[in-house]
Amino acid sequence: MRIEESDIPALARGCAVLGTGGGGDVRTGALAAARAVREHGPVPLVGLPDLDDDTLIVPLSGIGAPTVSHEMIHGEDEPRRIAAEVERLFGRPPGAVMSSEIGGSNGVAPVAWAAALGLPLLDADGMGRAFPEVQMVSMYVAGLPADLVVMSDVAGNVVTIRPVDGLWSERLARAVCVASGSSALMADYVLTAASARGAVVEGTVGRALAIGRATAGASDPLEALRQELGAVRLVTGKLTDVERRTTGGFVRGTATIEGTGADRGRTLTLELQNENLVATEDGAPLAMVPDLITVVDTETAAAIQTEGLRYGQRVTVLAWPCDPLWRTGKGLETAGPRAFGYDLEYTPVEELAEARRHG
């Protein structure tokens, strides 16, 4: 399969949903991807079985605050500088590009980066969604060493980091990102196809395309999306308050949705750190990381990123289960609610929904 220019709108819609509010505004990534495909041709989409064991895979993603990333847009120079540095370090060129996170612009922009480098895109990523911190990837959960991070920014700087572990990769990469204006392009966990097997979330580019296509022509886009995701509808209502700040390379804050129609009288609160992390009602959790929580426009079912939340928007909040690897002990330690500072015992979204139905 190849990703054509005509596929990019559906990919962008799907990645926006999987972004759970983060991963960057898909519009900038989609524009870059469409332009790159026009200039360089369609991008082959390959699976791990299509690659030789020693093929180098470069997971690429933007790192920083989403509110900054759509103003400091990555061009073709940053991935080329990173690919050149990877070739210098390994003695051979990369053989494929992978999205570090399928959510948001970080799921769409790799099409542009792969096109610019003349490489195929791997149908996989390191999250199955979006997460805000560098160590919150499947490769870390799988126990692969986080011993190399290569970063480049719009000013042309290239930084190579040799962290001792995943947590140090986050601290050091975040410091470089902040110094670069809270936006940079990053390759972390450069790996071979052999080591990627069992350590990445496979099929996620295809999944994003299916999600993006689910609402096309649907008489009820919201219900079509809910069914495609297997999601729980947490609330439908009006956005009445948004508190948002950019600090330390993250967007942090809260959003409040007051229910309308059948949900009148209910109030849902979302906690944000680039992504939607926890949804509560009257202090009780309705959904929490690592499960996915996405805010969508009630009429169109288009996902709304955290930086796009505005007072008065008519929205629906959907939540659905994460990839099983995040529900393991190491997965929850890495990206469960306590990893973000919430004193919550992780409970799967489907169990919380079932408890409400019988409550």
From TrEMBL:
Entry-linked InterPro entries: S-Me-THD-like_C (IPR048350), S-Me-THD_C_sf (IPR024071), S-Me-THD_N (IPR010318), S-Me-THD_N_sf (IPR027479)
Pfam families (alphabetical): S-Me-THD_C, S-Me-THD_N
Domain (S-Me-THD-like C-terminal): residue spans on this chain: 166-349
Domain S-Me-THD N-terminal, chain residue ranges per copy: 7-161
Protein name: DUF917 domain-containing protein
Organism: Nonomuraea pusilla
